[in-house]
Amino acid sequence: MSFASELRQCLGVVLGTAPPESDYEPLTFFRQWLAERNLGLVPIANAGDFDWPGQWLARVRASDGDHAVLMFGSPSGPLDDPSGALGGGGTIEEGWVVARLDLRLPIEEPYGQDRHAGSVVAILTAADAEGPLGHVETIDAVAGRGLVGDRYYERRGTFSGPGRGYELTLVEAEVLDSIDLPWEEARRNIVTRGIALNALVGHRFTIGAVECIGRRLAEPCSHLEKLARPGLLRPLVHRGGLRADILAGGAISIGDSVAIAE
Question: What's the DSSP call for residue 49?
Answer without folding.
Answer: G
